[in-house]
Amino acid sequence: MCGITGWVSFDRDLTRHQTDLDAMTTTMACRGPDAEGSWLDRHVALGHRRLAIIDLEGGAQPMSVKTDEGTVAIVYSGEVYNFAELRDELRRRGHKFRSRSDTEVVLRGYLEWDEAVAERLNGMYAFAIWDTRMEKLVMIRDRMGIKPFYLYPTADGALFGSEPKAILANPLAERAVDLDGMRELFSFTKTPGHAVWYGMREVLPGTVVTVSRDGIREHTYWSLHTRSHTDDQQTSVDTVRSLLDDIVTRQLVADVPRCVLLSGGLDSSAITALAAAQLGKRNEQVRSFAVDFAGQTENFTPDHLRGTPDTPYAHELATYVGSRHQDIVLNDTTLADPAIRRAVVTARDLPGGAMGDMDASLYLLFKGIREHSTVALSGESADEIFGGYSWFFDPEVQTTDNFPWLTFLQSRQPIPVLDLLRDDLTTALDLPGYVHDKYASAVAEVEPGDAETEQERRMRVICYLHLTRFVRMLLDRKDRMSMAVGLEVRVPFCDHRLVEYVYNTPWALKTFDGREKSLLRAATANILPQSVLQRVKSPYPSTQDPRYAVALQQQAKELLSTSQEPLFELVDRQWIENAVQQDPSTIPISVRNSIDMALDLNTWLDIYRPRLRLP
Predict the structure, then answer these.
(1) Residue 2 catalytic?
(2) In the list 76, 114, 228, 562, which could disulfide-bond 127, CB 3.0-4.6 Å?
(3) Does one domain contain both 290 and 437?
(4) 2, 30, 463, 494: which is the annotated catalytic residue?
């Protein structure tokens, strides 16, 4: 796991631009604290920051191979979990290896299969290969978009990087955000390819992008297709379990300490139990970590999202499987610390949207874990794959033409930002119209199944929206918060084989026991306690301590004391004045989250100083 960046310019001699490349590479020191490297040729500059996971001594980057026709060099971020099988196949084809790293497997795989190497990889990855033989750059991103990858076309080539900050460090990149970028920022949607920053875009998941003298070309090597599902219930359950056993076994491979994230919910408990079983065969004990808030379990109050606290279930599961467990306990002072907010906004390159305190707590959780482990397995994405959120079962959500999570949230509380922004900006943005257009585009991508009922068709659409939009917001958040502290988080549920299989199981089969995630519950029933198996879905936790709201209100009052803050070009000053006067013990979570967003926006404007291309 690493950070990559680079520059292709067919009108410049980039061997003279080492300083520019160093500036781009340095921005990702947190992603790769173990080593830094660069590789320059006349028309390309490649930079790399390394977090050493496999072959600690032999996996240095950029990595290159000389052929009779020329040199091929790679900068690579991620993990390929089937690299051992691919290496064996490549050896049979005559390739000789200098290291044990998966990076060299990918590089030599490109030499053997060219761009088609992408179709053979199982994992999470973003990498760029410069091929001097044809003077072209090949960029490839994993199927689910687990690892971030950004592209900034230029007049004579392109800039690229794991994060926008690497691209923005180059003098050619404009630090600007236009109305469309602001719409993406505030809409709580994730448009594939959109990067918010003007002139920048994401390399799409499952896509190969090439940059040559002929321009930029891209093609999709994987997308979510509809296929018929003929397996019966028991075969489907058995297949899910078989896939999970194989996936977890592969993703436990590392030459550094590894652990699991454990919330006490079905998803993380399943991964923990599977990892415990695999490691137990080697007489190893699995290590688990959970986030908690001081006093939350004792004073927990159920709400429309969370019915139970996590900690008792996490502790029960840890005891059940024999994991070495540790809670990372946070308090309101740390969560609201402006220095933590600054670190989080820097990690994301953007304000945090509607996540409230959850970005800060995730960052602090990962920071605590990093003191003990370098790799963590997560239960992220199971809800999107197996149908775990309560709104999947909401009749209004099932029948409304809108993104399901937005319909659900809007019916229970105002969406943050909509009231926070200035009226003139709200009018210019027209967020409802933007969301409507993005929703229509997303639905148009869904391939219908043969002889599907209207209910099955609608549920396929809802599942597709979660797998191609909602989950990418969560994966990006997970990657940024973890890599900001040099922790690699792996997501077993995002294995494309599992995603494809479960996506194509009918909704009736996904819910055969009358509730959410039937397939996952049945597939792991023999390794989990009944309390965890029967627990109702509870999302990632948020602090309920009113002192957190007090701290936010105080920081917002300090903003109000400065009349010249650029923030008020975006935010309604009167709204903030009203918000800071509310009783912190009864303040609605939507208002609290909006104050959080205002503070994020102010921090972002201070760090990045973007030019806002607004009317």
Answers:
(1) yes
(2) 76
(3) yes
(4) 2
